[in-house]
Structures are given as structure tokens and as C-alpha cells.
Design a protein that fits this description.
This protein is mainly α. The chain contains 8 helices and 3 strands. Helix 3 packs across helix 5. The longest helix has 25 residues. It is globular and about 65 Å long.
């Protein structure tokens, strides 16, 4: 049965409908991100770690939490990023046994380059008007803190 525009406008979306869209967009974004990261010589996990560290330096355990992986995996990951000059380890201010990992300028430039080259994601966002982008940004900004609390 074909629905008119007016009938479609009053369709009530369920949370399940929205979750499905989140999942599909998240998966497509991650595929684009991983493919572009690989073209830049990074694994998807290395690129994701850089993206996290660009926001703020973290202890090794904090990186593991953000990447949802075992802390034992982070040492090798950070070793490889450090060998390429993308991150640096610093001694923790309150506890010298804790190593804080921070993105270097080269690491920040690398993640900016990955995001700039994500053509599929850019093409999708180009479908939105400036006002739609503003509204989407506002909505995502409201949801992010709740979702990041996990």
C-alpha cells in the first residue's frame, strides 16, 4: 500500500528503528574509517586509538577501556604507534608508575588525514543542508555524553 507524504510524516519511530539506523550508520562509518586508515598505513585499531588520544591523553588502562580490549593488548599497540612517532608516553603526574599516552603532532595530523579522506562519509554528509547538519550535530552532541558513560 502506498502512503501519502502526510501519512509518512506522522509515522511514529520506535527506539528499535533508531537503534537500527545507528547500527547501520555506525557500521558503514567504521568500514570507511578502517579502509582509509589502511590506505594511510594504520590498522583500524591504531587509527581508533589515535582518534581517542587526540581528544585527550590517557593512561594505558584508559586506552583499553576506550577500545574495549584487554589492557595487555595496548602495550604492543602503543609500541607500534610510538615507533611511527604518532604517540608518546609520559610519566603520570600523580603516580610515576602510570604511563600516560598522548598523540604527537604527527599523530594528530594522521587522524585528520584519515578523516579528510573518508569519501563515503563525506558524500553522505554532503546530502544534508547546513541547517540539517547543525540539527544533527546538536542531537548527536546531546546523545554522546550519555552513550559514552556506557
Amino acid at each position: 500500500m502506498n502512503r501519502t507524504a502526510a501519512e509518512s510524516a506522522v509515522t511514529v519511530l520506535t527506539k528499535a528503528d533508531l537503534i537500527e539506523e545507528f547500527a547501520a550508520i555506525g557500521a558503514a562509518y567504521y568500514q570507511d574509517f578502517a579502509a582509509v586508515a589502511a590506505r594511510h598505513g594504520l590498522t583500524s585499531v591504531q587509527a581508533k586509538a589515535l582518534a581517542v588520544l587526540v581528544r585527550r591523553p590517557l593512561p594505558m588502562r584508559g586506552i583499553a577501556e576506550q577500545l574495549v580490549c584487554d589492557a595487555s593488548n595496548v602495550t604492543g599497540l602503543v609500541d607500534r604507534l610510538e615507533a611511527h612517532g604518532l604517540v608518546r608516553r609520559e610519566v603520570g603526574a600523580s603516580d610515576r608508575r602510570i604511563k600516560i599516552v598522548a598523540a604527537t603532532e604527527a599523530g594528530e595530523a594522521a587522524i585528520r588525514a584519515v578523516r579528510a579522506d573518508m569519501q563515503a562519509t563525506h558524500e553522505a554528509l554532503d546530502l544534508l543542508s547546513d541547517e540539517e547538519r547543525r540539527v544533527l550535530h546538536e542531537l548527536l552532541t546531546r546523545l554522546r555524553p550519555v552513550l559514552e558513560q556506557g
